[in-house]
């Protein structure tokens, strides 16, 4: 058989697929609904929504597929994701690419296959919606149009459902091997890499839902003096306390992460532009009022932060990458710190043809 080539963007495609959490999430009733409709329309023995992982084809939803996954290198769907249109094989037994495939010579005895590639919000082809028969079959132009329409339904369901998960749900679904890459071990919040991943995800969600997003960078005021006066262990406890109180004060859909030694980033979806600075001051209030420390003599130690803020509209992803937006918020934070303690500076993102 002819093994499907890997897409040119395979590494980025795989990373995007993994970031969705769809590989480890529970069965999805909406995708099951789509496969049931497809079976009723086409009358095929097997209908599936497959996802192409590193070395396996995983069936997220399937009807009569005898296994939950197969090796990727023997999959028909591996060929389907290489194109934009529906991939069709009407007689696999006499097709030189598949005639000796174990999926043809053994169970499930594939003879006819039609699979429409599924594209995720990042623009990567992550799998296929396919109908499979054990008899040869001709697929008409109308058949292919119907299958493509069902594929669009599946893409929409995937985009909305797997973009709507809360940060905690994403964390719960995270492969343990990814924790070190994405999670800050001291605060158990997202790290710099994780926050960039989340901002990228939220910019996609904003465009899908025509929503907006407030982005913040904030840092402990005068942290060098705190470090010199009280030592690293105390400053680490302050950092942990800030992460805890900020996280507990946010909504489920908001995201907070430690992105450097004494600095954090925060994402708040659905915030109006005129609310952005006000919510920055709320972050300051939360830290000042809830992060209370005393020195060795029992005297209170005042802990404050300064905040840099910016705001993204639904079209921002078309112009700016996540790291550039976070850098823009960090520049606003630097200005806030230069002006004194407990300041908030808002900087609008520049026009698309201007540098951030």
From TrEMBL:
Domain of life: Bacteria
InterPro entries for this protein: GAF (IPR003018), GAF-like_dom_sf (IPR029016), GGDEF_dom (IPR000160), Nucleotide_cyclase (IPR029787), Rev_trsase/Diguanyl_cyclase (IPR043128)
SMART domains, sorted: GAF, GGDEF
Region (Disordered): 1-20
Residue span(s) of domain GGDEF: 211-349
UniProt biased composition (Basic and acidic residues): 1-16
SUPFAM superfamilies per record: GAF domain-like (SSF55781), Nucleotide cyclase (SSF55073)
PROSITE patterns linked: GGDEF
Protein name: Sensor domain-containing diguanylate cyclase
